[in-house]
Design goal:
Radius of gyration: 18 Å
CATH topology of the largest domain: Rossmann fold
Distance between the termini: 50 Å
Number of domains: 2
Strand order of the largest sheet: 3-2-5-6
Bound molecules: adenosine-5'-triphosphate, magnesium ion
CATH class of the largest domain: Alpha Beta
Number of helices: 4
Helix content: 10-25%
């Protein structure tokens, strides 16, 4: 039998809301509807998210709060297309994430979402600038070859 554990709290930063509201007519950047996530460990289920409805407007700055284990990372992983919710839908920039193929989802994450992981997941053989540049290099954009005071991804030490 599963047990609900999450009551995530979101707090809108007041300074960002008026600008965000002004852009609201373009639709929310993130629209999560009735999102649920249950993990299964053998025959035991752990319901971490239940009926999460969340809209994030363009330009909005949002804080998700909750006790350790409440499901913040689980929610962010689902919103960021790194994990799939058990129930509900997540629309991001007008796209239903569940409708994207693996390749489309990878491209979408690479181009639209920036992650700073709780456990960092930095590549130790790369320096700080190279780690930061990695998504842009994978996307083969000019941003993958930034120059800062003569430094570039290929020769910088930060
Ligand atoms: N892949 C997984 N399989 C099974 N259980 C998981 C998995 N990932 C997370 N959990 C469990 O789900 C619950 C929520 O975890 P989550 O990491 O989302 O919490 P959190 O709010 O980010 O916590 P913290 O503040 O410590 O980072 C925890 O009980 C955790 O043990
Ligand atoms: Mg976490």
């Amino acid at each position: 039998m599963s047990e609900a554990r999450l009551e995530a709290q979101a707090q809108h930063q007041t300074g960002a809301t008026s600008e965000a509201a002004a852009r609201h007519d373009h639709g929310p950047l993130v629209n999560a509807r009735n999102v649920g996530k249950t993990y299964w460990i053998g025959k035991r289920s752990l319901e971490v998210l239940r009926n999460v409805d969340l809209q994030v407007l363009r330009g909005e700055f949002l804080v998700v709060r909750g006790a350790s284990g409440a499901g913040k990372s689980t929610l962010l992983h689902c919103l960021g297309g790194l994990d799939t919710p058990t129930t509900g839908e997540i629309w991001f920039d007008g796209k239903n994430l569940a409708a994207l193929s693996g390749l489309e989802l990878s491209r979408f994450r690479n181009r639209k979402i920036g992650f700073v992981f709780q456990a960092y997941h930095l590549l130790p053989e790369l320096d700080a600038l190279e780690n930061v540049c990695l998504p842009a290099r994978m996307a083969r954009t000019d941003a993958g070859r930034p120059r800062r005071g003569g430094a570039s991804c290929s020769n910088a030490s930060v």
